[in-house]
Amino acid sequence: MKQFKTLLLEINSRSLKSQEKIINEKFLDWKGSNSQTDDIVVIGVKI
Question: For residue 34, what are the domain limits?
Answer without folding.
Answer: 1-47
